[in-house]
């Protein structure tokens, strides 16, 4: 958080937006890059990164259509919508990736994976990725989080299934 004691000017660095708080209350005004002015002592600015960021997704246990265990890990590239960082900061906080992205991805995978038989999971990896991007985008847009891409890094099957094939 930027908190100038006497200065009425705040520098918002490239790739960031400034969320203005006045006496602790989030204002609707979002500061763009460059030099911006605030009311000293009354207003403070919280910088929010709006550049594309990777978020490593935790390992998720899901099931195939035959109820076989499938474990997935991956990375999601996302960014906060620059126009609504004030709303994101107020409603979710700056640790939003841990709060909402992991939960949304976990729910999605547990919903999508059971629609695929074990033998189709690896060949249809790109279909799963595209479905994940579309569904996650629809889900996370309410938080003003934009999904840029999603990568499924690892798909592992149960030891019993791996031995059988």
Summarize the structure in words:
The chain is α+β, with helices and mostly antiparallel strands and 165 residues long. It folds into 2 domains: 9-49, no CATH class; 53-164, Tetrahydropterin Synthase, Chain A (2-Layer Sandwich), CATH 3.30.479. It contains 5 helices and 8 strands, in the order βββββββααααβα. It has a 3-stranded antiparallel β-sheet with strand order 3-2-5, covered by helices on one side. Helix 2 (96-112) packs across helix 4 (125-140). The radius of gyration is 21 Å and the shape is elongated. The mean pLDDT is 88.
Key descriptive features of the protein:
elongated, 3-stranded antiparallel sheet, 8 strands, 165 residues
Helix content: 25-40%
From the N-terminal CA to the C-terminal CA, the straight-line distance is 54 Å
Output the CATH topology of the largest domain.
Answer: Tetrahydropterin Synthase, Chain A
Fraction of residues in β-strands: 35-45%
Q: How confident overall, as mean pLDDT?
A: 88
What are the low-pLDDT stretches, counting only 5+ consecutive residues below 50?
none
Query: How many helix segments?
Result: 5
Q: What structural category do the secondary elements indicate?
A: alpha+beta
User: Tell me, what's the shape?
Assistant: elongated
The quaternary organization reads as: single chain
Q: Would you report the number of β strands?
A: 8
In N-to-C order, the SSE pattern is EEEEEEEHHHHEH
CATH architectural category of the largest domain: 2-Layer Sandwich
- CATH class division of the largest domain: Alpha Beta
Radius of gyration: 21 Å
- Please, how many domains? 2
Q: Give the CATH H-level superfamily of the largest domain.
A: Band 7 domain
Please give the order of strands in the largest beta sheet.
Answer: 3-2-5
Biggest sheet character:
3 strands, antiparallel
